[in-house]
Design goal:
Layout: H1 4-9, E1 14-15, H2 19-36, H3 43-53, E2 56-57, E3 61-63, E4 67-69, E5 75-77, E6 81-83, E7 87-90, E8 95-97, E9 101-103, E10 108-110, E11 112-113, H4 118-121, E12 125-128, E13 131-133, E14 137-139, E15 144-145, E16 150-151, E17 155-157, E18 162-163, E19 171-174, E20 179-183, H5 186-201
Parallel strand pairs: 2-5, 3-6, 4-7, 5-8, 6-9, 7-10, 8-13, 9-14, 10-15, 13-16, 14-17, 15-18, 17-19
Antiparallel strand pairs: 1-12, 11-12, 19-20
């Protein structure tokens, strides 16, 4: 018979009060509490805690405290990741984040779900669906990423967006529910290269 943890990671209904899951969650809460008590002078300590907390990470990742997660070990993060204040990762199911990804303040990644039926829900059943984020992604402040969502590469998600469906590569997407606003084009690159030149001229 499968364990509750195996059921959880498979996306099936499970009971979160299971002792093994409770132990994993306790570990994550202890590590995030330690991280959130560090100061800006504790760079190496922070890096060591993040390495212990997450399943796998790149060498250059940073979370501005405070930060919260359910398990941590079900989250994989690539190189050059930055998260601003108050981000939340509920990694009931796997969270996978690519390279060169930035999160604004209070971005939430929520893989957890609960049954619509109240009778089943009140029996403490839960389930999770994975979240995947590609490379070169910027997610604006207070955006919410819902269970089962995949966000492609080279994407900008507008602040306050609620992402309920997959977002393709190379687009700006905004709103509640989040929808594609437009593609990111070569003209965007040219515009921002000109802005960068102005910086060096001043």
């Amino acid at each position: 018979m499968r364990s509750q943890k195996e059921k959880m990671l498979a996306g099936d209904l499970y009971i979160a009060s299971d002792p093994e899951l409770a132990s994993d969650s306790h570990r994550a809460k202890s590590l995030t509490r330690l991280y959130n008590r560090t100061t800006e002078d504790d760079g190496e300590i922070r890096k060591d805690i993040l390495k212990k907390l997450f399943g796998k990470t790149g060498e250059n990742i940073y979370f501005e405290p405070p930060f919260h997660t359910d398990y941590g070990i079900h989250t994989t993060i690539g190189e050059d990741f930055y998260a601003n204040y108050d981000c939340i990762f509920l990694d009931i199911a796997p969270i996978t984040i690519g390279n060169n990804v930035m999160f604004g303040p209070r971005v939430g990644l929520y893989t957890a779900g609960h049954p619509i039926d109240a009778i089943v829900r009140n029996q403490e059943y839960e389930y999770g669906k994975p979240i995947t984020i590609g490379n070169d992604v910027w997610i604006g402040a207070s955006a919410i990423i819902n269970p089962g969502v995949t966000i492609g590469s080279n994407v900008v998600i507008g602040s306050g967006s609620v992402v309920t469906k997959d977002i393709p590569d190379n687009v700006i997407a905004v709103g509640n529910p989040c929808r594609v606003l437009r593609e990111i084009t070569e003209e965007d690159h040219k515009t921002w290269e000109l802005e960068k030149q102005k910086y060096f001229e001043n």
